[in-house]
Please model this.
Amino acid sequence: MDSLGDPASTSDMHTDYTVGQDNIEGRLGPIGFDIHNRVFVVSALASVVFIILTLLFPERAGAVFQAIVGFATGTLDWYFMVVVDFFILFCIALVLLPYGSVRLGGPDARPDYGYLSWFAMLFSAGIGIGLLFFGVLEPVYHANVSLPLGIPSPFGADGELDPAAIPEATALGLAGTYLHWGIHGWAVYVVMALALAIFTYNKGLPFSIRSAFFPILGERVWGWWGHVIDILAVFSTLFGLATSLGLGAQQANAGMNFVFGLEVSATAQVIIILLVTAVALVSVWRGLEGGVKKLSEFNMIMAVLFFFFVLLAGPTLVALSGFWTGLVTYVTEFVPLSAPFGREDDAYRQDWTIFYWAWWVSWAPFVGMFIARVSRGRTVREFVICVLLIPSLFIFIWMGVFGSVALDQLYAAPEISLVKEYVIDSYRPELSLFGMLNELPLTALMSTVGIVLALIFFVTSSDSGSLVIDTITAGGKIDAPRPQRMFWATVEGLIAIVLLLGGGLAALQAGVTATAIPFSIVMLLMCYSIVKALNGELRHRRPGKA
Model:
């Protein structure tokens, strides 16, 4: 069986289906192709139609996007919060129950990558542009505008700064940021990645999202039920990536304006997306080892150096103290911040939290498949704990330091703070990072580094996403012809462009929420399949093996 899994492992799920049996292979001139005859065609045609219609009718598209965002955040807010809270409880159960001892790939499997390379790939694929775009923006905004759990703003009704309100606002502003980037989101990724890993490595099924539904659908999973699941996964991935790419283009354009005076415009952002997509095509051509892995490791080194500059050049003790205070508050206020009902902080919960939960769900096929591909050989317990905690802790440190430095600048001199101007007064979120860097030494140099980091995150996200989408649309094959991956990298860039032209940030949010609504249901069903699969592994595990 042409699969990442081992069909000779302890599998209690038998099928005659072979990877690629429904594929069409051939050549168009010099270009070879190996595609699933329905998933690829429907996904590709629908993507092209969406791109064309949005370009032809941008105003109507913008109105539709706004309506989708309003429905998701205003009507389905409780649903998204309940779903993501459930994923956390599910992950905790996996760690505490005997399921945790099951090894991905069978009892004798060992990890394909060391911890450093594994964490680097998790870091670049699962975090991406968000660290740079939101690292300053969210702590400042939540502490002064959106006010999680109804805390009072340090800037009172008269606009005067109240020093007594600063400690609580800072702590809850950081805790509110940690909520959006911590274990809630990574629990979403765990569910997706674990389902793919179990059914591929342990059950010998194709490396495709539909495989996780074999316990529910049986052989029907290789028919139209499975096609629909995979097509939903393709669109969820495309729009989740497009949101990140659009935000990255906005931030890179803003940074270039800040440092070099380049005009901030839709045209400039389109050019940035096109140029970076071209670089991503080269990385896609080189593959996982030559492209994604090397870029991820380089990106992690650059990001760590950038982080230490901000930590050491800024008020170091204030930054570290802020990180810790925010972390303690996050832990103590975890339940109130996670509660779906009885809330009065609508601006924070609906405008921010619900968008994030939809964004994490929409990214789940992409990041989940990528995490699964690099996690063979880990036990379920090791996998869940590491994927939940290691990236979350890194994010907490990053955002705690960046947010604390920015908040210290804001409260020390609000009358001249660029952070206040960009986040609170005029709300230009793409400039928030550069507003903070303006108060540190080597502003121009470090702002340029920030731009480069954003662009590399852009490349690694597009690169990783293209590999994942190509795997889905190639019927689970991981060695399909490279031009197919390049096609999907191009489509991702084009969707990011049309969403920016069709309504900016609201359009990006709409693309995410529209795909996250149905796909969240798919992920809930996955939890049942995971339990069925793990029960089978425990029944058939050889004595003495862990």
About this structure: Confidence is low (pLDDT under 50) at residues 1-10. The CA atoms of residues 207 and 476 lie 5 Å apart. The first strand starts at residue 23 and ends at 28.
